[in-house]
Amino acid sequence: MTNTATGPLPASVLEALGRYDTPTICNAMEIVAPERRLIGYTTKQLVCPFPDLPPIVGYARTVAIRSVLKSSLPAEEQSKRRIEYYEYVGTGHGPRISVIQDIDGPDVGYGAFWGEVQSNVHKALGCLGVITDGSIRDIPQWAPGFQALAGSIGPSHAWVHAESFGGEVRVAGMTVRSDDLIHADRHGAIVIPLDVAAKLPEAAELCGRRETPILEIARSPDFSLEKLKAALKRSAEIH
């Protein structure tokens, strides 16, 4: 059983954010927090084996893993650390998203932390998905509905283990701290500051309204450069 504390934001805000894809949320962020235009989102391509799953919105559970080097801890201490890790993942604000940095340097992705077992365990612990620059495996046996964005897909877990958890991680160019609010889909992920989260749905709608006149003329059989210029002018006047 997981322990989900009341989050800092109402569930209705998370539900509203989940109605938009991640690029739209990025567009909306440019309106409500323009100073974050160059930070806070993934900048490197990640593999998404389940592109048709809807966007996920949840609070980060951060982990650093490695697989090239065997854990130096005794077996008993490794078992204790594993339980402590699961306790961390399964408690706190919910819903949750695992954000995992592979710290194997040039050998990132050498061993997969994620597969059939971990996807099902983390889903049971209250997670909606995983974002990692490491590798994943067991795609056909993956937990149903559990989203995944990964650096690669590979066959073996090598010596993979959690080196630390609860600290700051950096995955595909995105820096994440424990309990950060994350929005993710097949395109990538973005950290949403809590103080602007409730403003994003309205900003996303504004983005859509501004795009409408441009898309209408671009898709029209009567398209012309002059009509595009007029559509751009109408778009700029929408507030």
From TrEMBL:
Gene3D superfamilies: Ribonuclease E inhibitor RraA/RraA-like. This is Putative 4-hydroxy-4-methyl-2-oxoglutarate aldolase. The keyword Ligase does not apply. Its cofactor is Mg(2+); a divalent metal cation. Mg(2+) binds at residue 138. One of its GO terms (molecular function) is metal ion binding. Keywords: Magnesium, Metal-binding, Transferase. The lineage of its organism: Bacteria, Pseudomonadati, Pseudomonadota, Alphaproteobacteria, Hyphomicrobiales. It comes from Bradyrhizobium manausense. InterPro entries: RraA/RraA-like, RraA/RraA-like_sf. CDD domains: RraA_family. The keyword Transferase applies. It holds the Pfam family RraA-like. Substrate binds at residue 137.
